[in-house]
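User: Please predict the structure of the protein below. I'd like the answer in structure-token form so I can feed it into my own downstream comparison script.

Assistant: Understood. Taking the following sequence of 138 residues as input:
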Amino acid sequence: MTYVDALQGALTAEHAAVYVVGYLGAQTSASAQPQLFDTLTVAYESHRELRDLLVEAIREAGDEPVAAAAAYDLVDVAGDPTRIRRRALTLERGCAAAYGYLVANSPSEQRRFAAEALVATAVREIALGGRPRPLPGR
């Protein structure tokens, strides 16, 4: 896998994250589930920022960023906070895997961005009720 392939993989994960986290956030209530609502709001903003940074990095590397899919599979969470957390946690784990590949395939001068994104994803996993897991290479 090349650096650009890993960037494209992370971008693919971020496109899905923006879509799915937006959907999940719409299934929560700021008054009924303030902590979950805030966690998903922060996650949405973070995923949008990371998506935009990845687009920029791919263009700087001389490639065209992959486009977002027209739609993504949405699990019916029926507004259930437990189901919302579970789906968000699964999504964050997918992003963590993509960033793990990016860390492994990044040139030294680009590795900090990838590592920081991986750590941020791991922190969101914990906020969603996930258990700490060793990061790749640890």
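That's the full token string. The chain has a mean pLDDT of 94.
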